[in-house]
Each structure stands twice: as structure tokens, then as C-alpha cells.
């Protein structure tokens, strides 16, 4: 069910609609709440699990924006699942079945690394091939004369530097929140002092994204 990205379109490629995605998640969560309140608890649980799969499809192997949309969808879904469990309307058998399904969901939670790699490729593609003369001048103004004289060399250097940050996230998803925050904060502090201006102007907040991801994931436990 993943969105069919056209990666060949680079930074100009279409993304899933934020508004449509949020509407669908809101409708799913609202319907599950109606079913919970009317006693259809098993159907409510199954619907919320389906919505969580939609959240995974949104957040997996896209770019940072769609990953954050997926995190928001996860958070809304898990909050309603918590309300369902706390309602006391699920039988012991239903709770046991839900626990097994949540273990599978947690195991399949999307990794951040492909997302960061896609974001890096998209950002560097935009820097390498500006869509207009005006955009080229703007990038040159931000990147300095080195960018204007050697667009490809500076963009390649920026790509490699950002890729080194991505490699450092390899084990973050298995670490606790404190370790993740410490490493993400360190990377975020390094980017503004980079000698490459493209790094300073285009590196996303890894710390903020990791915090959003951890917040969504912790809600499922």
C-alpha cells in the first residue's frame, strides 16, 4: 500500500497529500471510537490496526515529511488503542490477540535510515539541478562562490557529509531515548559549523525527527 513515488522527478516529485492522509486517519479513529462505545470492540481493534498499517505505509521509505505524517498517524491510532484497552470492554482472549498483533506491528515499525537517505538524495538533486536561473542564484548566494564555480563538487561533498550523519543513525533505533537524543543532538550541533554551506542550509533536524518517531513508537507499548 505504499505511495508510488516517482524518484526520477527528484525534489519536484509528488508526495502523499497531508490533508487527505490526516482525514483518512481521523475518520478511521472516529469510527473505531463509535464501535468501541457501541460494544463492537473487536471490530474497533481491527480497524485501528488497519489504520496503523496505513501509518506504516506513509512513514516507510519516503522522505522526512511523509515520515512525520506517518508518525502523527501512528500517535493518533495508538492513543485510541490505549483508550480501547482502558475501557475494560475487551475480553482476556481479545487482549491476548491484540498483544500478539501489536508485537508484530512494533517489529515492522519503519526504519528511519531509508527515509534519511531518500531525503539526502532529494536535497542534493535539487542543489545539483536547480529548476530555474533564479533558484541557482539563490543557492549561489547561500552557498557562496564555491557553489557557483563548482556546483557538482560542492554538492557531492555535501551529499557525502550528510551520508556520514545517516550512517551514525544505524544503531539509534535500538538504543534508549537518552542515547538517541545525545547522538542526534551531537549531529545537529555539527551541521551548522560545517565548512560546506549546503550542509548548513539543508540539513534537517535529526533530533526533532527522532523525538517524534520515539514518541509515536513508545505510545504503542
Q: What do you see in this structure?
A:
- This protein is mainly α and 221 residues long.
- 73% of the residues lie in helices and 0% in strands.
- The protein contains eleven helices and no strands.
- The chain has helices at residues 18-37, 41-59, 64-86, 92-107, 113-128, 133-143, 145-149, 151-168, 177-190, 197-202, 206-218.
- The longest helix is centred in the middle third of the chain and has 23 residues, at 64-86.
- The radius of gyration is 21 Å and the shape is elongated.
- The model has no long low-confidence stretch (mean pLDDT 78).
Q: What would the average pLDDT be, to the nearest integer?
A: 78
Distance between the termini: 25 Å
- This entry's quaternary arrangement is single chain
How can the largest sheet be summarized?
A: none
Order of helices and strands: HHHHHHHHHHH
Radius of gyration: 21 Å
User: How many β-strand stretches?
Assistant: 0
Q: In percent terms, what proportion of residues is strand?
A: under 5%
* Helical residues, percent: over 70%
Structural class: mainly alpha
Low-confidence stretches: none
Shape: elongated
Tally the helices. Answer: 11
What is the topological layout?
Layout: H1 18-37, H2 41-59, H3 64-86, H4 92-107, H5 113-128, H6 133-143, H7 145-149, H8 151-168, H9 177-190, H10 197-202, H11 206-218
Short description:
Helices cover 73% and strands 0% of the residues. It is an all-alpha fold and 221 residues long. Helix 2 packs antiparallel against helix 3.
Amino acid at each position: 500500500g505504499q505511495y508510488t513515488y516517482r524518484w526520477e522527478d527528484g525534489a519536484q516529485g509528488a508526495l502523499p497529500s497531508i490533508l487527505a492522509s490526516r482525514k483518512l486517519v481521523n475518520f478511521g479513529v472516529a469510527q473505531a471510537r463509535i464501535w468501541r462505545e457501541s460494544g463492537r470492540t473487536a471490530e474497533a481493534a481491527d480497524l485501528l490496526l488497519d489504520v496503523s498499517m496505513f501509518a506504516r505505509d506513509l512513514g516507510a521509505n519516503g522522505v522526512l515529511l511523509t515520515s512525520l505524517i506517518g508518525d502523527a498517524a501512528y500517535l493518533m491510532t495508538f492513543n485510541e488503542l490505549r483508550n480501547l484497552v482502558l475501557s475494560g470492554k475487551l475480553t482476556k482472549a481479545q487482549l491476548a490477540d491484540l498483544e500478539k498483533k501489536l508485537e508484530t506491528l512494533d517489529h515492522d515499525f519503519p526504519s528511519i535510515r531509508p527515509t534519511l537517505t531518500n531525503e539526502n538524495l532529494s536535497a542534493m538533486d535539487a542543489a545539483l539541478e536547480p529548476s530555474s536561473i533564479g533558484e541557482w542564484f539563490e543557492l549561489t548566494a547561500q552557498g557562496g562562490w564555491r557553489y557557483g564555480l563548482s556546483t557538482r563538487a560542492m554538492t557531492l561533498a555535501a551529499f557525502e557529509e550528510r551520508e556520514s550523519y545517516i550512517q551514525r543513525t544505524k544503531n539509534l533505533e535500538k538504543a534508549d531515548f537518552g542515547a538517541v537524543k545525545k547522538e542526534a543532538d551531537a549531529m545537529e550541533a555539527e551541521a551548522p559549523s560545517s565548512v560546506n554551506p549546503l550542509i548548513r542550509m539543508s540539513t534537517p533536524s535529526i533530533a526533532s525527527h527522532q523525538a517524534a518517531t520515539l514518541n509515536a513508537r513508545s505510545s504503542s507499548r
